[in-house]
């Protein structure tokens, strides 16, 4: 077809429900703000791995939907999460990305979280244990007993991933939230403790969902030289996608022929427990989580949406805690070859979404974004995105193909997806199935 | 050409910067011993660990460079501003270790929004080269380079070594 005029360009595509979305879902600032409230403040969000807080009194900070969060390991070895907000005047209780409360700070005592501003102190369970000159200033009107931190729901689950939910009333736990999507790698993640070995981050001027889309579809392997030239074999095209409740999907395994890669070696010997040699599973969880077990190393992408057109992506690499130095070195090499900041694929993926961000800046003209590949659920089928956006539509009460309209129950093209169920307590929008 | 070891080491480090700035990968490898080991490392206070972002020997580096044209890459040039902080020449005058502080700037070209960004330079990475060299035949040859970077926010990253 020749290049199109405006009318042709803007014409609704002759495709079925789910096979395309309106780009305003990636660019509209009002929709973004709504997503923070309706999705990010309701969902279980993984924030880190437990090995980032290896010792009692270690802590780590994070952000969910603009809410600052602090995660601490208590002397009882329990990991707990709180809003990182002092109840006094709203100062961040701790300003660092990570550290230990084992030693004292200039404003406070060892083994306490201390707000440096006025010296209010909290124990590792979030109890307020010190208000300087409490009685003199408040005369019993404000007491330590009533000034604990805001506790958040927190679970350590699936290989030590730390999950936090801002909503106390969400009626499922992490197990229910995952809805079976992680079962394909569960035994591999849970067989023995994991340990983080890699961290770096990217802030990219694009909507967070564009990164999740990229992680959810493999058609973009055409962008990657190695995947395209040496990876497209029968095993690759036999990988099957599966959709789960709550908007999650996973991509089944196949055996990667690393021997055919240039600049890569076989990783069969170091393949994670319970995984056949050189196998590779990928799990994409709503609303923006990717857990990727590629033979000998786990990659975990966690996103912090910053605006309609800005996202922080944190990249983590994990091995087995029992690794010898030599084995760990190998795992790191395997991880970095593809996924490190100099890796052959990650850079290309990020350049790709940066380019999408350019065409979908806030207030740019709406366009149609196609999610319509059907290949019998095999690797280049775009069921992952169709499933995500049907769930997104239900949570947001907006139609992904026209977000100015309310969500309506409908049949998404393809027979393969479960209903777009969500948490039961989502007010009036997502019915319990 | 310098005649004392310290100056030979400095000459080699600055020439390496020029070669890397100009993406003369083979010329840079030509400054390195066949047993050369290269790594990019960083300490992450976020996870409390020293990390290795890249680790390649001479042959692997050659393979890595040869594959560059086959990858889709942000072509925004990287350029270094480097200062050799210290050079320690061994007692026998045949080996040396050096520490060089560097800033790497990126001249924006095609990686994000070319019509807006092209021509802008911004700070990309901060770090130090920790080099080991042999001094032989009147020149210093790299045997090991650890590029210790202080930057963990690498955004799109790069296919080009630092």
Task: Name the features.
heterodimer; A: 433 residues; alpha+beta; Rieske Iron-sulfur Protein; seven-stranded antiparallel β-sheet; 19 strands; globular; disordered C terminus; B: 162 residues; Nuclear Transport Factor 2, Chain: A; six-stranded mixed β-sheet
What is the compact description of this entry?
The complex is a heterodimer of chains A (433) and B (162). Chain A has 433 residues and is an alpha+beta fold. Chain A has helices spanning 6-10, 24-27, 29-40, 134-138, 174-178, 183-190, 208-216, 225-231, 234-237, 325-339, 346-359, 383-396; strands at 20-22, 45-49, 58-64, 67-73, 79-83, 98-100, 113-114, 121-122, 128-130, 151-157, 161-165, 194-204, 241-243, 249-251, 280-285, 289-294, 297-307, 310-320, 368-370.
Describe the structure.
The complex is a heterodimer of chains A (433) and B (162). With 433 residues, chain A is α+β, with helices and mostly antiparallel strands. Chain A contains twelve helices and 19 strands. Chain A has two domains: 45-155, Rieske Iron-sulfur Protein, CATH 2.102.10.10; 182-396, Alpha-Beta Complex (Naphthalene 1,2-dioxygenase Alpha Subunit, Chain A, domain 1). Chain A has helices spanning 6-10, 24-27, 29-40, 134-138, 174-178, 183-190, 208-216, 225-231, 234-237, 325-339, 346-359, 383-396; strands spanning 20-22, 45-49, 58-64, 67-73, 79-83, 98-100, 113-114, 121-122, 128-130, 151-157, 161-165, 194-204, 241-243, 249-251, 280-285, 289-294, 297-307, 310-320, 368-370. In chain A, strands 2-11-10-5-4-3-6 form a seven-stranded antiparallel β-sheet, with no helix packed on it. The two termini of chain A are 44 Å apart. Residues 423-433 of chain A have low confidence and may be disordered. Chain B has one domain: Roll (Nuclear Transport Factor 2, Chain: A), CATH 3.10.450. Chain B has four helices and six strands; from the N terminus they run ααββαββαββ.
